[in-house]
Amino acid sequence: MTGEALAVLGLAICAGLCGAGSAIGLYFTGSAASGVLAEEPKKFSKVLILVVLPATQGIYGFVFGILGLSAISAGMDPVAGAKIFGAAMPLAITGLISGIAQGKTAVGGIYAVAKNESLSGKLILFPAMVETYAILGLVVSILLLQ
């Protein structure tokens, strides 16, 4: 396998897993919000931020994919390609897992807003704590790309 192929494969896996984590997380939050809004449509603005939080992992995977493409050069050796492949893995793993976990955490917040909408601002903190690990994965992957 060529260096370019290894590098592109790593970036594709990273973008794909981050996107999958976001999609699954958004499935959870969107489903929960739909149920809450069916009962009380006025709570839309209160649950919206909790619904979209898991989308960030997909954005991180996309951004890292673009950054990684700029590191690929024609005729690169397999070791250089493996380096880019390896650099993509911290974000790939944290993006997948944290996207799903953030969605599940945000669902709890959405249900809490259904009972007491005055909590909505405070409830952003819990899924945001999960987000920290996606950000750390992104930072490590960027550092390894250098």
User: What is the overall pLDDT average?
Assistant: 94
Largest sheet report: none
**Total DSSP helices:** 6
Shape: elongated
Q: Helix content range of the residues, please?
A: over 70%
What is the strand tally?
0
Task: Note the run of SSEs as H and E.
Answer: HHHHHH
**Unreliable residue stretches:** none
The CATH class turns out to be Mainly Alpha
Structural class: mainly alpha
Q: Roughly how many Å apart are the termini?
A: 22 Å
Going by CATH, the homologous superfamily would be: lithium bound rotor ring of v- atpase
How many individual domains? 1
CATH architectural group: Up-down Bundle
The amount of beta strand, in percent, is under 5%
Radius of gyration: 18 Å
Question: What does this 3D model show about the protein?
Answer:
With 146 residues, the protein is an all-alpha fold. It has one domain (3-145): Up-down Bundle (Four Helix Bundle (Hemerythrin (Met), subunit A)). 84% of the residues lie in helices and 0% in strands. Helix 1 (3-39) packs antiparallel against helix 3 (56-69) and helix 3 (56-69) packs antiparallel against helix 4. It starts with a helix and ends with a helix.
